[in-house]
UniProtKB/TrEMBL annotation:
<dbReference type="GO" id="GO:0036064">
    <property type="term" value="C:ciliary basal body"/>
</dbReference>
<dbReference type="GO" id="GO:0015631">
    <property type="term" value="F:tubulin binding"/>
</dbReference>
<keyword id="KW-0067">ATP-binding</keyword>
<keyword id="KW-0436">Ligase</keyword>
<comment type="similarity">
    <text>Belongs to the tubulin--tyrosine ligase family.</text>
</comment>
<dbReference type="InterPro" id="IPR004344">
    <property type="entry name" value="TTL/TTLL_fam"/>
</dbReference>
<feature type="region of interest" description="Disordered">
    <location>
        <begin position="1"/>
        <end position="20"/>
    </location>
</feature>
<keyword id="KW-0547">Nucleotide-binding</keyword>
<protein>
    <recommendedName>
        <fullName>Tubulin--tyrosine ligase-like protein 5</fullName>
    </recommendedName>
</protein>
<dbReference type="GO" id="GO:0070740">
    <property type="term" value="F:tubulin-glutamic acid ligase activity"/>
</dbReference>
<dbReference type="GO" id="GO:0005524">
    <property type="term" value="F:ATP binding"/>
</dbReference>
<dbReference type="GO" id="GO:0000226">
    <property type="term" value="P:microtubule cytoskeleton organization"/>
</dbReference>
């Protein structure tokens, strides 16, 4: 609960100018972790597929987040990512933030990932 308490403290201590900044940070799809809430973690909401909520979609669009799906057909994953504003890139592209794969990756591919690129931990 320290995150909730810190958020409440920020909201009560902020002025009218700061409220806009706090509202951008406290987005329903971003959970802040680590010391002083500096590490963002994306939280995906399944209901985003049905609601088509633009507030949820803006996260992927604002930060130009992209994904690729390799060697699998994951319609649910594709729908959730698209509902959160991610756009899909070609399977051979190296410009992506998230790769969802249906098989284990070769070690050389894992070594080429940048800090901003993530893969699913449990293929298939």
């Amino acid at each position: 609960m320290p995150v909730v308490m810190a958020r409440d403290l920020e909201e009560t201590a902020s002025s009218s100018e700061d409220e806009e900044v706090v509202s951008q940070e406290d987005h329903p799809c971003i959970m802040w972790t680590g010391g002083c809430r500096r590490i963002p973690v994306l939280v995906f909401h399944a209901e985003a597929i049905l609601t088509k909520d633009n507030n949820i979609r803006v996260i992927g669009e604002r930060y130009h987040l992209s994904y690729k799906i390799v060697r699998t057909d994951s319609r649910l994953v594709r729908s959730i990512l698209t509902a959160h504003g991610f756009h899909e890139v070609h399977p051979s592209s190296t410009d992506y933030n998230l790769m969802w794969t249906g098989s284990h990756l070769k070690p050389f591919l894992l070594r080429t990932l940048s800090e901003a690129q993530k893969v699913n931990h449990f293929p298939r």
